[in-house]
Amino acid sequence: MIDITNCNKIIVDTIGKTEKIIEWYQQNKDWLDAEEFRIPIPSALVELPEEDIKFYYEQEGVFVRLHLYMGGVYVCNYRYDPKTQEIENIVFPAGLSKEKRKVARMVLAADRTPYKEALKFHSLMCFATHYRNCIETTEQKEKRISHKHRKILRRSGGATPLITTYRIDSRPVPADGTKRHYTKPTEQVSVRGFYRTTKTGKRVWVRPFTKYNGNSGNNKTYKV
User: What phi and psi, each to the nearest 5 degrees, are found at residue 87?
Assistant: First the structure.
């Protein structure tokens, strides 16, 4: 189980901000979708307090795994393909009964919640890619780590990772057609191991790896 109290965070504090970012993405969808999809903010928990919804995202190769929380309760996780913008492989908590799982599946399908949260994630990542300068730091604190990990850091001369809170400033969401250049992420991104299917149909295991090596490994919280 993911410790969502001890990870990077992106806080979108109002529904209005979320809607404006989605509207910006949809107005600029043609040229945004023509670009390579990037995740400039590492694996993080996106908090939507006015909707009482949270979702944690992490990369799985070319896919993204979204972990959905509603009303403070872990509901499910599913895989999202940024290229096709489709979701699949919905997984419910192991302790959920067959009957409750059936009801949950019906509710999610009726409201299309997984698709809605995937759209929010996709829009937010596109916005952060082109308007990272609109995200400001508001708080920093040390990440909780094990005693063993802390000793290793001391011996190696490393610093304790930080969790940083960010907020999108008061400037308005850019107008239709406005475009900025991509800025390489300043944090390391850990990618879990995954299976890749080659053109010949063979499945190959790709070991876990870190992207953007040499950058800071700090955990951060972003606020929109």
Answer: -115, 155
Kindly report the length of the chain. 224
Rounded to whole angstroms, how far apart are CA atoms 184 and 129? 9
Q: Do residues 51 and 19 lie in contact, with contact meaning Cβ atoms separated by under 8 Å?
A: no
Share of the chain above pLDDT 90, in %: 33
**Distance, CA of 62 to CA of 187 (rounded, Å):** 19
d(CA 48, CA 61): 26
> Both tokens of residue 185?
């992420």
Q: How confident is the model over 13-26, as pLDDT tens digits?
A: 889 889 999 999 99
Decide: 162 and 140 in contact? Cβ < 8 Å. yes
Q: Are 66 and 78 in contact (CB under 8 A)?
A: yes
pLDDT in tens, 53-89: 999 999 998 999 999 999 888 999 999 999 999 999 8
Nearest alpha carbon to residue 118 among 22, 28, 43: 22
- pLDDT tens-place string over residues 157-199: 655 566 566 665 556 566 555 555 555 555 566 666 777 777 6
Read off the pTM: 0.72
Question: At residue 26, what is the residue type?
Answer: Q
The most distant pair of C-alpha atoms in the chain lies apart, rounded to whole Å, by: 54
Q: How far apart are CA 105 and CA 98, in angstroms?
A: 11
The tokens of 117 are what? 């949260």
Question: Residue for token digits 């304790």?
Answer: 160
